[in-house]
Write a structure and sequence with these properties.
Length: 126
Amino acid sequence: MHCAYLIQDLAKQETMNKQIKEFDVDNVVQLKDMYCVQGACNKGDIKLGDIFLVAYQHITKSGFFEGRYEYEVLGRSDVREIELQVIRIKAYNRDLDELSQGMSGELYLKGEGGDILRERDFLGLS
C-alpha cells in the first residue's frame, strides 16, 4: 500500500516538473511588433503557444570545491511580470514546433513586457 502512494507522489512530481520551463536569454532584438530572444532552453521543453509570465535574474553561488567548479542557483532577483507568447521557434536554420531542454535557438515572442527584457534574463512560466 505504501508503495502505491510513493508511485502516485512520483507521478505528481514528474507532472509538476514538466510544467517548469525556463529560457536563458543571451540576446534580445526588437522587431516590428514582436521580440526575438536568442538563447537556450534551460528547463523543460518550450512549445509554440507557450506564454512566459516572468522575467528574472538568477542569484547564484559558484566556486571551486575539492578541485571541481560548482555552480548553484540560490533563487531569483529582479523579478518582472510579462506576458509574452511564443509564436515562432527557430533553431539550426529551421522552424520548429518545440525547443527541447538543452537546445539553443531563437524564440519569437509577442505580447506585453518585451521592452523590459535584457541579456542574462531568464524567462519562466511562473
